Amino acid sequence: MPVKSSTEPKKSLSQVIAEHNSDPGALLDILRDAQEIHGYLSTAVMEEVADQLDIPVSRVYGVATFYTLLATEPKGKYIIRVCESPPCHIRGAVNILETLKEVLGVNPGETTEDKKFTLELTSCLGVCGVAPAMMIGDQVYGNLTPERVKEILKTYE
Ligand code: FES
Predict the structure, then answer these.
(1) pLDDT(1) > 70
(2) Taking Cα atoms as reference points, which of 73, 87, 148, 70 lies closest to residue 123?
């Protein structure tokens, strides 16, 4: 499979929908692509998808709000994903999450007021050997302690 170039121009929503043959059965895939284009699924984007697929907006909204990978609010510059799978849980992921909640002042699924960080929970990041772990953007951090989390966050200031 060819690797997408980062300089490749983004598709339009109409192109994405056409690629899926305007099939309402492909709604989830279309919304995933729409999010990639627009960053999140605004009301305007959901209305356009509904319009082009000729389905009720409520159906689009229902799918957009059901799946945690889809966002109906703008996300922060950096997405922090804290692993909550058993190996990380056993090794203190709860303390890591509590530290992030305390320092950032947000709960999972929320974005900081300055729009810098969005806090999310995730399943295994594939680095269980260094549990507990989290990702900030594309960067993985392991062997976390509350103190280390605070130090890492400072590097994003
Ligand atoms: S369980 Fe957390 S990285 Fe695998």
Answers:
(1) no
(2) 87
Distance 76 CA to ligand 1 centre (A): 23
pLDDT at 16: 93
Q: Is 119 exposed, middle or buried (0-12, 13-18, 19+ CB in 10 A)?
A: buried
Domain 78-154 CATH (choose: 3.30.950.30, 3.40.30.10, 3.90.1720.10, 3.30.470.20):
3.40.30.10
pLDDT digit string (tens) for 80-134? 999 999 999 999 999 999 999 999 999 998 899 999 999 999 999 999 999 999 9
**H/E stretch holding 79:** strand 78-83
**Domain boundary assignment for the chain:** 13-66, 78-154
Report the predicted TM-score, pTM, of the whole model to 2 decimal places.
Answer: 0.70
Ligand 1 centroid distance, CA of 88 (Å): 5
Ligand 1 centroid, distance to 119 Cα (angstroms): 17
Q: Is the CB of 127 under 6 A from ligand 1?
A: yes
